[in-house]
Amino acid sequence: MPSLSDVLKSLADLAPLELAEEWDNVGLLVGRTGESVERVMTCLTLTPDVAEEAIAEQIDMIVSHHPLMFRPRQTITFDSAEGALLIKLIQADIAVYSPHTAYDSAKEGINAQLAERLGLQNVVPIRPLAPDLGERSPQLAGLGSGRMGQLPEPLLLSELTKLVGERLPSDAGIQFVGDPEQSISKLAIACGSAAEFQGDARRQGADALITGEARFHACLEVRTHGPGLLISGHSATARPAC
User: What predicted TM-score, i.e. pTM, was given to this entire model?
Assistant: First the structure.
């Protein structure tokens, strides 16, 4: 039976943690590396009901795309929902791992999968990794945050919105900022809450950026400076994580 260390190595091969954003909390969050692992659960977000299911099913490890303890905690007690969840998982000896933005940016990660779903060609990162990282680790060469590429043929922003709704279905529907008649050839993608990539996408000549959610002021900036912005819902863009 594989150990937790074996599973961690496989996960690191899939989504090298060096790809994670500096602000993120990734890797093994709960657990002992020497423990054996037979049953693994994946989820987008580790909620109390997911934890209860894992305990009931005698799961050894949860791989949750979104991390626990996203912000530093000074106490872990039953007085908070996250504290209670963590204590229950520790008592049940369930390990928790989160790849989050490392998997967003991995070679076969979420943004790469979204680019493939939309048929993008000549795909490159929106924010390439520093060259020295690629030199130190060939596994990271050519990678970085987000993805950007050419559509097979130009589409109006209104047509692209319809296509995204079909390829990345969202219960919330698709919102957009920009001129519906704008022609889109070069498209950028940054899953989750990543409207801050708009400046990078604009500087690299993208006509539009797709992300999961955006704040009001980010939408105002797009309206003033571009590029076009499509907002398809956080879960819709992150769902490939599972």
Answer: 0.92
